[in-house]
């Protein structure tokens, strides 16, 4: 719906204003999280900083947890588009791998935010719940639907799309775990490549490995 | 700790009593869930049925959700043992696959219970939260530690054990999704085999598939 407004029209102005408000909310929230602490920050304080109403806040984010994770729905849509448009010659896992590497690249750039999110995901049941119950299943579902449309199969009948999506999520998460455990010192893209190589090696695996 | 008591000793008697009480709690709970409904059943009613105290209940289960999922910690220990003891010639994913097939086989036998759990996991945030935040990460952690000990690597440095564990979880879950979507009519072991075949084919994959 947001994408509908073309630049230069009233829709375009409204769109730009929405994006600006969304960003202002995120920035104010992160300032408060950093100075006061995530748990001590109330939504009331965030909206006061931005000068908007609570109601307006909830037009952009459904909770304080949602602000912490930014515009992840848009990131998932972008990921799905990349998978659908990837070279048709690529095997399903290779198409997901290529798309997931751009996610890893974004996380490398955002590593300070990612570390904070990851620590809160471990220490806070509400943040952990938001991540594990909302974001993670949505990632797998976005990847599985994109694969299902690539392969022309029904994901409720053929386990392939969900198997590949779940496997890719597992491998990407493994890389993120190691990355965070090492203080995000390495490049996540390198760790993700190692992690994907475990089951999706870039060269044929030697005979007798199984 | 429970395993410490040998049969015939006082420890053995205590162990048998503990197992019997645990089973009685599970049976009473499932009777009530089936007749009254899961949400309408209170822990108070379960303990009344069995004739034990609330305190005694909490020695076996940490919540009503925990009763619903049975003795999953013991199942995970068994899974880890199978992976550690599997033929050293097997590649990591093949060792996990073999162990996961016995999980699938158990679920085939318990399919009525699994369907109920799965429906409640979807419809109830507390049950869904217990599954996604407690059981699922514990499964992956049990598999990853077993693999780390098999491979002699530190899972916080080398992404391999968690990558394989996460990928295996993803593939097994994909099979369970399709199984439940089809009313558990097929054999889960068949669906799980199809799902694992996607990334871990039993024969060498043809050249040019990637």
UniProtKB/TrEMBL annotation, chains A, B:
<dbReference type="GO" id="GO:0000976">
    <property type="term" value="F:transcription cis-regulatory region binding"/>
</dbReference>
<feature type="domain" description="HTH tetR-type">
    <location>
        <begin position="19"/>
        <end position="79"/>
    </location>
</feature>
<protein>
    <submittedName>
        <fullName>AcrR family transcriptional regulator</fullName>
    </submittedName>
</protein>
<dbReference type="InterPro" id="IPR050109">
    <property type="entry name" value="HTH-type_TetR-like_transc_reg"/>
</dbReference>
<dbReference type="InterPro" id="IPR009057">
    <property type="entry name" value="Homeodomain-like_sf"/>
</dbReference>
<dbReference type="Pfam" id="PF17754">
    <property type="entry name" value="TetR_C_14"/>
</dbReference>
<dbReference type="Pfam" id="PF00440">
    <property type="entry name" value="TetR_N"/>
</dbReference>
<feature type="DNA-binding region" description="H-T-H motif">
    <location>
        <begin position="42"/>
        <end position="61"/>
    </location>
</feature>
<keyword id="KW-0804">Transcription</keyword>
<dbReference type="InterPro" id="IPR041347">
    <property type="entry name" value="MftR_C"/>
</dbReference>
<keyword id="KW-0805">Transcription regulation</keyword>
<keyword id="KW-0238">DNA-binding</keyword>
<dbReference type="GO" id="GO:0003700">
    <property type="term" value="F:DNA-binding transcription factor activity"/>
</dbReference>
<dbReference type="InterPro" id="IPR001647">
    <property type="entry name" value="HTH_TetR"/>
</dbReference>
């Amino acid at each position: 719906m947001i994408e509908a407004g073309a630049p230069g029209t009233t829709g375009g102005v409204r769109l730009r204003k929405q994006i600006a408000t969304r960003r202002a909310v995120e920035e104010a929230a992160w300032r408060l999280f950093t100075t006061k602490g995530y748990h001590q920050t109330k939504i009331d304080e965030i909206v006061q900083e931005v000068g908007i109403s609570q109601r307006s806040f909830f037009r952009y984010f459904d909770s304080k947890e949602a602000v912490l994770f930014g515009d992840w729905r848009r990131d998932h849509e972008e990921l799905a588009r990349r998978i659908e448009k990837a070279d048709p010659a690529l095997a399903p896992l290779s198409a997901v791998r290529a798309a997931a590497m751009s996610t890893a690249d974004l996380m490398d750039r955002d590593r300070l935010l990612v570390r904070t999110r990851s620590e809160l995901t471990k220490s806070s049941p509400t943040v952990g719940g938001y991540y594990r119950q909302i974001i993670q299943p949505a990632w797998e579902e976005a990847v599985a639907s994109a694969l299902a449309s690539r392969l022309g199969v029904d994901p409720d009948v053929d386990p392939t799309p969900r198997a590949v999506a779940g496997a890719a999520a597992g491998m990407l998460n493994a890389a993120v775990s190691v990355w965070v455990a090492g203080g995000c010192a390495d490049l996540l893209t390198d760790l993700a490549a190692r992690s994907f190589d475990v089951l999706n090696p870039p060269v044929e695996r030697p005979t007798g490995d199984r």
